[in-house]
Amino acid sequence: MSGQKTGAKKQPRYIELADDLREEVLNGAYSDPGEFPTESVLCKKYGVSRFTVREALRKLTMEGLIARKRGSGTVVQPAIARGGALHQPLSNISEILQYARDTTISFVPMPAQDIPAKITEQLGISPKRKWFVFHGERMKAGRRRPIAVTIAWINPDLADVVAQIDPEAATLFSQLEEKGNLSVGRITQDIQAISASKSFARRLGIEKGDPILRILRCYFDRDDRMFEISASYHPGERFAYSMHIEAD
């Protein structure tokens, strides 16, 4: 099973199992669209209940990675059905961290600057001071071009913490939590299709004006203070966003 960080809140067993199975699928552990292990095999292999296996498989089914067919069992969806893109599920913070584990990013700290008007207008905020800025390109093993360009802005109140950030280490928000003695209270997310500017087109290896997906996230602490904003820009063919919604 995927390891848990010391002191981190333990995730439900089915999420851990889903994380492990997702990684195997995306790494090509099963032939495309090869047969997937049966529920009984998975129960025995991971030492979990049938309920846990079914919940994990339901999660991967909703993400479009596998299909469960009557009389045929569970099969891995062909790469073409998945769009050949990186799939990012999101129903909790652990899944943002899973995305970070499955890819790599190196940030470059930039001089503090005003948050661009397009971002502040989208969020409905009016910062009075310049925020710290980090630029990064997220890569996935085996790919030459980045799957995303990310720009992150960090609240100027956290100057002492920003000075301790390791640009090559964990996600920025998790470093801010650890080094700044704060906890994420909530995360908001806005997804919008936009046209690639000349700068983003060059960095992503696409044409200016091509459609890209901008994922704008705001991180708030337990006192509801916004402490980080990140904007990730993904070429459409390299990213598929999935989520599951529970019925009331």
UniProtKB/TrEMBL annotation:
SUPFAM superfamilies: Chorismate lyase-like, Winged helix' DNA-binding domain. GO terms for molecular function: DNA binding; DNA-binding transcription factor activity. The lineage of its organism: Bacteria, Pseudomonadati, Pseudomonadota, Alphaproteobacteria, Sphingomonadales. GO terms for biological process: negative regulation of DNA-templated transcription. It comes from Alterisphingorhabdus coralli. PANTHER family: GNTR-FAMILY TRANSCRIPTIONAL REGULATOR, MANNOSYL-D-GLYCERATE TRANSPORT/METABOLISM SYSTEM REPRESSOR MNGR-RELATED. Residues 11-79 form the HTH gntR-type domain. Signal peptide: none annotated. Keywords: DNA-binding, Transcription, Transcription regulation. The keyword Nucleotide-binding does not apply. This is GntR family transcriptional regulator.
